[in-house]
Design goal:
238 residues, alpha/beta
Length: 238
């Protein structure tokens, strides 16, 4: 199946995810016109992010690692780990990968960093299709006058309700590049493991990536960064 067709399918499925999100907006008393404005942004961001993600995925010969992440903020800056045009963030610095590889590699650009991730089969999958931020009426981080923070329960319900349209679809794509071996699945953040372990583990087990949730490793460090020396490095450079 071509990248174009896969992208079209993901975008089509996202329409169903947006219906789930609209139900939450309605329950929270957010006006239809506000949802429609956010929907236009969310559709555009999803399309652009999915295209970038697929372009990187197509460059992988084999998926060896899957890191589970929250949805990117995207926004006006289009901040995303797979966007070559945006800066690195604490989510994954180039120095984290340089130290983990420990072979003298120095990445002179984000493009070079992403190329290495693709070469080693390191795939990042977001758990939510919605790039919510402070400019949308709902967001993941904090309440403001213009935007409400969704509760942990609402967030979990959104992820669970959209699994079939988004997360599971990306797992199926990743499965096509396993080549008879299971990848190592990683938690990027403790909060993702704590909130979504049961939901995501069920999908991962169903697709044959893990046997139980205990198979999922973690690479987080207190303070938000990646624990390179005692977690990431032993995983990708044993």
């Amino acid at each position: 199946m071509s990248t174009k067709i896969i992208l079209e399918n993901l975008i089509s499925e996202n329409s169903s995810s947006l219906l789930v999100l609209k139900q939450l907006y309605t329950r929270l008393g957010i006006a239809d016109e506000d949802f429609e404005r956010d929907k236009a942004y969310l559709e555009q961001s999803f399309s652009e992010m999915s295209k970038i993600w697929l372009e990187n995925f197509e460059k992988m010969d084999k998926v060896n690692y899957i890191m589970l992440s929250e949805a990117p903020l995207w926004g006006d800056d289009k901040s995303y780990i797979y966007n070559e045009s945006t800066p690195f963030t604490q989510f994954f610095y180039k120095s984290d990968l340089e130290r983990a590889l420990d072979d003298g590699t120095v990445f002179l650009s984000k493009r070079a960093f992403l190329k290495k991730l693709n070469e080693i089969g390191f795939l990042i999958i977001d758990i939510s299709p919605f790039a919510l931020n402070q400019k949308t009426k709902l967001n993941y981080s904090k309440k403001s006058e213009a935007s409400k923070k969704i509760t942990p329960r609402q967030y979990k319900d959104l992820v669970q309700a959209t699994l079939v349209y988004y997360f599971n679809e990306k797992l199926k794509l990743a499965k096509s590049k396993l080549k008879n071996s299971k990848p190592l699945v990683l938690w990027r953040y403790a909060r993702v493991k704590e909130a979504f372990e049961d939901v995501l583990s069920a999908s991962l087990a169903q697709e044959g990536f893990i046997n139980t949730s205990a198979d999922i490793k973690n690479i987080w460090m207190n303070g938000g960064g990646i624990a390179v020396e005692n977690k990431l490095k032993p995983i990708i450079n044993p």
